[in-house]
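Milestone 3.1: sequence recovery, worked example.
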């Protein structure tokens, strides 16, 4: 098992239940574990029946948790930029830039970018502190886009840095300063720091081979098809998918005709899963009689003993 585990899947398949139970299993196995919720629904607090929130808190022996709020992180990031601008931009244009920054908070992609920055921060700062970092992720499509952000943002930052270097050189030449001395420019420092943080996190996850994915799915057509696509996409990033969790499997002794038919269809899809994912270890979790709560989580955690 890799140190950093992303648990993903189609919306509604039970990722948070599986992430929480797996985290409990790791903690009970003696591994210092951090559970990170990136799903906007943040059901982690509901499962453990306690407030988790924006800062890392201890919830059980060997188990800490945090819930990332993309809107909060986006606003915090923009406010930090505003603070930096006051020191480096003429007051005449600060008001207009501030207005544009306020609009940027709600622009497409801003929350994903802020989420990625927070995930990067956690990986960079906590990878040596914990034996296991488990990310309960948003639905599959959002998670895949998060993984593509380093490449996209890296290219964008390189472009911004090139333009900034050119602007600083022209400014210094116009003011009889050394145009090659760029190290003191605060904007370049900010851009370089962000690029370095992204590259460091990517090196930890990809180059050091510390990242893997576990997908959660139900024995239904749409989750199966989405998982097939996601596994193929991750192959392009050389990210392993060694395990799958098939969640909410019906009991065998169904009596009612409706549920007998549902069970027959489920068997068909379970066979399809076994054939389509023959290279992956498949963990089967039963449909619970009750909503997942703290009192049941240890019972579900036992199903993960075959992962290690």
């Amino acid at each position: 098992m890799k140190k950093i585990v992303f648990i993903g899947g189609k919306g509604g398949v039970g990722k948070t239940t599986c992430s929480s139970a797996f985290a409990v299993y790791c903690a009970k196995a003696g591994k210092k574990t951090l559970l990170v919720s990136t799903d906007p629904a943040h059901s982690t607090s509901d499962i453990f029946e306690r407030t988790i929130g924006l800062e890392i808190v201890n919830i059980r022996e060997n188990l800490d948790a945090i819930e990332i709020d993309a809107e909060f992180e986006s606003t915090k990031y923009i406010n930090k930029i505003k603070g930096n601008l006051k020191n480096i931009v003429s007051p005449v244009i600060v008001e207009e830039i501030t207005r544009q920054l306020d609009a940027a908070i709600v622009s497409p992609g801003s929350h994903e970018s802020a989420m990625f920055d927070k995930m990067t921060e956690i990986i960079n700062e906590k990878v040596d502190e914990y034996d296991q970092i488990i990310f309960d992720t948003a639905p599959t499509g959002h998670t895949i886009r998060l993984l593509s952000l380093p490449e996209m943002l890296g290219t964008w930052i390189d472009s911004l840095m090139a333009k900034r270097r050119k602007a600083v050189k022209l400014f210094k030449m116009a003011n009889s300063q050394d145009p090659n001395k760029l190290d003191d420019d605060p904007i370049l420092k900010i851009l370089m720091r962000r690029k370095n943080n992204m590259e460091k996190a990517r090196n930890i996850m990809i180059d050091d081979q510390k990242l893997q994915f576990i997908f959660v799915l139900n024995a239904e057509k749409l989750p199966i098809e989405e998982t097939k696509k996601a596994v193929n996409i991750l192959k392009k990033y050389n990210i392993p998918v060694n395990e799958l969790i098939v969640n909410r499997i019906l009991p065998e002794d169904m009596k009612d005709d409706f549920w007998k038919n549902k069970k027959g269809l489920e068997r068909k899809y379970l066979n399809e899963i076994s054939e389509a994912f023959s290279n992956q270890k498949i963990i089967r979790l039963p449909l619970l009689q009750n909503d997942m709560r703290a009192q049941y989580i240890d019972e579900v955690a036992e199903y993960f003993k075959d992962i290690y």
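The chain has a mean pLDDT of 81. The CA atoms of residues 30 and 62 lie 7 Å apart.
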